[in-house]
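Researcher: Here's a chain I'd like modeled. Treat it as a single chain, no partners, no ligands.
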Amino acid sequence: MSKSSRYEWRDQQAALHERMKGFLANPSNEQLEAVVAEMRAYADAAQSGSIEIPQAWTAYS
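Model: Modeled as a single isolated chain. Structure tokens:
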């Protein structure tokens, strides 16, 4: 996986997590629809091959 692919995947993950945090902080239909739309975009990008999902990664917290 190239460095740019990894950054693109990381950015997609960050956007998805931010949407989920927004929904958890303010659970409304609007926030729920935003989360579902972000999840669909992520799934579509993964299926079309426009983002590459790493097989394994290390998270440092």
